[in-house]
Design brief:
The chain is α/β, with parallel strands linked by helices. It has one domain. The protein has 16 helices and seven strands. Strand 1 and strand 2 form a beta hairpin. It starts with 5 loop residues before the first helix and ends in a 5-residue tail after the last strand.
Length: 314
Amino acid sequence: MLKPGGAAALAAIALCASAPAQAQAQTASDAQVEEIVVTGRKSGVPIWTVRSDTTTIFLVGSIEGVSKTTKWDPEALTQVLRRADRVMFPQMQAYTASLFSAIGWVAKYNAMGSLPKTQSLSQYATAEDMRRLAALASRKMVRGDYDRRHPLHLSRDLQDRAKGDIDYGSGVGSYVRKAVGKYKLNLVKPPKAKAKPLVKDFFASEPEEHLPCLSASIALAEAGPAAVQARSDAWAGRRVQDVLNSPAQAPWERCWPSEAIAADRADLMDELQGLLAEPKVTVAVLNLPALAAKGALLDRLQVAGYDVQGPAWK
C-alpha cells in the first residue's frame, strides 16, 4: 500500500523491499478469538472478523493520511497480532529497481511538471474543472500557473495545500510493521515485481489519463483541511461510510501510483478464501475501500456465506 506521492512515490517504488519475517506458531483458542472480537469493537481500529469452519481471519481496514491529532487505540490490534499465526498485506507489491534508475525516474518526473509550450491544461480538463480551479486560485488554494501544469503535478499541489497545517502521523500499516519486528511475528512477504514496467507505463501516459485524479484533488481543495481531519477522525471512530464518502478519500484511490498498484492486485477474493480453508489464524491489513466499498471484499465474503462481524460498512 503505497502513498500517492509523486517523485517520492517513484523512489519508494524503486526501493521497496519486504520486511524480514520470523515464524511464530501461536494459534488462538475459541475463547481468545471471542475476547479479541469484543475488544476490537471498543477500539478505534476498524477490524472485521471472518470465520469459516476451519479458521478465523482478522481484516484490518487501513487508510493513508491519518492526522497526527487523530487518536486511535492500537490495543485491540496488538492483541490480534500477538495471537495470529501470520500477518500479511495482501494488496502490497514489492517493487524493485536500482538506485540509479530511481534517481533518473525522479528527475524525469520533476521535468514533466510543466506541460509542453504548445499545450495547456484547458485543452484537457473540462470547462467546469477549469472554472473551479479559477475559483481556487482567487483563494490562493492553487498555484497561479495552474493552466500550464501537468494534471498529476497540479493534483499533488492541490492535495498539499488542502491539508493546511495538518501533519500526517502513523497509521495501521506502520504500526503493524513495527509490531512484526517487536514481537517477532510471522510476516508473509509480498510478491516481488520489477518497477520498470509500472514506471514506464506512467511516463507513456497522456495528461488526460490523470484527469480523474485532478477532479478528486479539486474537490479536496474545495473542502479544505476540515475534510482531511474529519476523514481521519471518522476512520478512528469506525464510521466507515463517512470515510469512503469523504472528498479527502478519493485522491488516495484515483491518483498514480495507487490506482495502478491496486489494479495489479485487484481480485483478492480467491486468496482470502484460500486462507479461510487453512487452519491458521491470519491478520490481513488492507485498504479500507478494498474491504468496505460497495461490492468489495466484505460484501463478497458475506454473499459467499462466511460469518463477517465488525463495524457497520454498508
